[in-house]
Amino acid sequence: MTATDIHRTIDAVWRIESARLIAGLARMVRDVGLAEELAQDALVTALERWPESGVPDNPGAWLMATAKHRAIDRLRRSKLLQRKHEEIARELEAEQAHAGDAQLDALDDPIGDDLLRLVFTACHPVLSTEAQVALTLRLLGGLSTDEIARAFLVPEPTVAQRIVRAKRTLADKQVPFEVPRGDELTARLASVLAVVYLIFNEGYAATTGDDWMRPALCEDALRLGRILAGLVPNEPEVHGLVALMEIQASRAAARTDASGQPILLLEQNRARWDHLLIQRGLAALERAERLNPARGPYTLQAAIAACHARAATAEDTDWARIAGLYAALAQRVPSPVVELNRAVALSMLFGPEAGLRLVDALTGEPSLKDYHLLPGVRGDLLRKLGRFDEARTEFERAAALARNARERTLLEQRARDCAAQAQAGTA
């Protein structure tokens, strides 16, 4: 194996093992920042040694053992050793004394609980949403600061500062490394799911930049969702979110043309949808509905996505069911965005005038003032009604609000098409 191959292997191992490694260490040292530092030290040691010694049979266990040694050394050197640290050091030394091949077990027994603790710590409400996202991708996704910065199109120093501040905040606030209980678990789980879905959405429909999609972020979010589903298998909304992401991700290959331009849902070649992901999504949806027949917000959104996935053609779409599901979603989580989506469903079911009445009622909504999809949807409904001049104005307004270059181009083209149709109508 060449040095290049070994470095690629180390990178792959880090992606797979880093979250479990940091989670296990955080349980031991009670400090997420120190745990990540120890894990990074072990990675550096691997980069130094493995090119000469070769990749060990169980690289994850090797990294954990190396990081534990570093933890013991760090605690021994500290001039501020407290009783807790002494107890932790003795615990680590006892584990090392009986390690040998049994080191492999260190990655197994408590690891599920450790990962769950790490998830809730990275998404703790004392942190801003931006910090939660950056820390989650760093600690659980194994992404470097540079990769996170490139994914969200922000300067690397900004992301680095967010991560440093997040770890400092967790330490200063003495946030416990634990899984919340009872009602707090429900509230905190909602925040965790929101972070995972935010990551997915930024990959599925990038808010800024030159690319319509960032597939790597979708993959990271899906991996986090699947891990979470394994850690809390009886939480219906976790399975609902996984179902939603699986089904939406199934359309990835059909969402852009060869030049990267967006292709809207009803115009996509459904033969290009990933049917394995669809089946996985439908299975997750069935599990979520079995656990909670009343269905939470993510499960309802997954059920809407499933209506599209089950339709062999756009014409086969069950718009009546979709409209009903949006109505149920609006009752669970009232939102102007949900109403806008319901308007689209109603327009497909009863015609563009029905949808336009609901959209017009939303035009004064303050939260949608800068939301480009509101004029975008209104423009589409006006176009279908043959009101091309009005439609052109709406598409131009939507393009001006859009921050994604690909989406802006699409909206500008629609405005030009409406202008041409208006001109043709007066010729």
UniProtKB/TrEMBL annotation:
Transmembrane segments: none annotated. Residues 120-170 form the RNA polymerase sigma factor 70 region 4 type domain. It comes from Lysobacter cavernae. This is RNA polymerase sigma factor. Residues 188-288 form the DUF6596 domain. Gene3D superfamilies: 1.10.1740.10, Winged helix-like DNA-binding domain superfamily/Winged helix DNA-binding domain. InterPro entries: DUF6596 (IPR046531), RNA_pol_sigma-70_dom (IPR014284), RNA_pol_sigma70_r2 (IPR007627), RNA_pol_sigma70_r4_t2 (IPR013249), RNA_pol_sigma_r2 (IPR013325), RNA_pol_sigma_r3/r4-like (IPR013324), WH-like_DNA-bd_sf (IPR036388). Pfam families: DUF6596, Sigma70_r2, Sigma70_r4_2. It comes from the Bacteria. Residues 21-79 form the RNA polymerase sigma-70 region domain.
